[in-house]
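User: Please fill in residues for this 424-position structure.
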């Protein structure tokens, strides 16, 4: 591969004598003596010198050019040259290095070198390869020393793997920028990344809630640095009756009004009501209201059985009477009846009691969700098991996709089941 040096920008710098180095790397003698590995080794040396590195970037093999791209001693003009390199691995190495060079660059370098470096950064931000753009975005996501236009270019990228890191972490994006991106109807991952920012303003929170994106709003609710207006919170609470994925995040919010707490208490099960009642900021009236709701929830669960009946007997009777279904397992989970859930899932999924018990004892949401799916039950049941029976922390709970669907693909769920020797 041959690349030309831009006129008037030939690099110079200290290090090895260029004539000696170029003699070493003469193509014919290099093939006879050191080969490509020798060139790559020289390309990675801190003392190789600007002229040598530029020569290697122009004439070297891909591995050699990648070594130059990773070399912090390569001159700015050489970096700019490599930003147009045909090899993706070369541009990836360059993206990582340029991101590390950016902090304080304008204070250390001349305006010409700074301009060339920014031009290199802009070129990488527009790279045709998603991998290059994604690595660049991840490397510069927290920097405030890059031009805002570059951050916006990456934030508006159509690939979530590129845009999400910038949207979640970049200090350069204003509320107006974020609101514009939300209004563009971006994919779920983009909205969720914005909802996880630290902080999220009330204005941005309003727009996220208006999007009606279930995972994004769930992420907003669990974000302690997200400021949510009282009116906006009331709107979420009103919509939460049909959206199970919001129940746990709502119950854990620290900034709930008494009205919101009472409304949430009327929506959720006994386990979450207990969490609400444990808050230290409740008035006596609100605490009494929650106690009343808790008694009502417990009364709804009719799993009472004679003392002599074992869990296996209860499951057998429920199956014989046609009551062994999703509602049965859901109520058992809400009531904390672990054995009934284990045995019920085992029978409904057609797996051994031992396998069901191991999955419920794993403390991991994914195999539990997979087992519920295998039992042909709803994601609502899986959510109830995670929250009421396993009592997983909110950040470990797998919420439903779109409010109702399973969040894992069938292939992922089969993989988790296979780990427990269950073929699905």
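Assistant: Residues filled in for all 424 positions:
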């Amino acid at each position: 591969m041959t690349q030309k040096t831009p006129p008037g920008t030939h690099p110079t710098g200290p290090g090895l004598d260029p004539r000696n180095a170029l003699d070493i790397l003469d193509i014919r003698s290099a093939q006879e003596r050191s080969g490509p590995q020798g060139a790559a080794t020289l390309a990675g040396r801190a003392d190789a010198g600007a002229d040598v590195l530029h020569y290697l970037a122009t004439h070297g093999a891909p591995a050699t050019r990648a070594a130059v791209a990773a070399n912090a001693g390569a001159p700015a003009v050489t970096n700019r040259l490599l930003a147009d390199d045909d090899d993706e691995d070369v541009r990836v190495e360059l993206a990582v290095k340029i991101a590390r060079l950016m902090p304080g660059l304008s204070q250390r370098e001349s305006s010409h070198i700074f301009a060339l470096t920014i031009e290199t950064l802009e070129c990488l931000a527009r790279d045709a390869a998603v991998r290059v753009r994604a690595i660049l975005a991840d490397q510069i996501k927290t920097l405030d020393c890059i031009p805002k236009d570059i951050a916006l270019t990456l934030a508006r990228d159509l690939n979530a793997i590129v845009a999400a890191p910038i949207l979640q972490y970049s200090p350069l994006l204003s509320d107006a920028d974020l609101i514009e991106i939300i209004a563009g109807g971006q994919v779920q991952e983009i909205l969720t990344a914005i909802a996880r920012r630290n902080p999220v303003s009330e204005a941005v929170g309003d727009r996220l809630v208006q999007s009606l994106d279930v995972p994004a709003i769930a992420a907003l609710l669990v974000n302690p640095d997200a400021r949510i207006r009282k009116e906006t919170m009331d709107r979420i609470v009103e919509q939460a009756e049909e959206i199970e994925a919001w129940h746990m995040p709502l119950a854990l919010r620290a900034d709930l009004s008494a009205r919101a707490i009472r409304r949430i208490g009327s929506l959720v099960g006994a386990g979450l009501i207990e969490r609400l009642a444990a808050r230290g900021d409740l008035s006596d009236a609100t605490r009494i209201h929650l106690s009343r709701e808790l008694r009502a929830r417990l009364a709804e669960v009719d799993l009472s059985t004679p003392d002599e009946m074992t869990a296996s007997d209860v499951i057998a009777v429920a199956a014989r009477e046609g009551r062994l279904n999703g509602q049965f397992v859901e109520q058992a989970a809400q009531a904390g009846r672990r054995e009934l859930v284990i045995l019920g899932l085992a029978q409904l999924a057609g797996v051994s009691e031992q396998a069901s018990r191991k999955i419920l004892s794993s403390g991991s949401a994914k195999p539990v969700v997979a087992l519920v799916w295998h039992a042909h039950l709803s994601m609502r049941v899986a959510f109830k098991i995670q929250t009421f029976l396993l009592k997983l922390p909110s950040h470990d709970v797998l919420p439903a996709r779109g409010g109702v669907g399973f969040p894992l693909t069938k292939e992922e769920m089969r993989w988790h089941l296979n780990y427990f020797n269950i073929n699905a």
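For context: Residues 1-158 form one domain.
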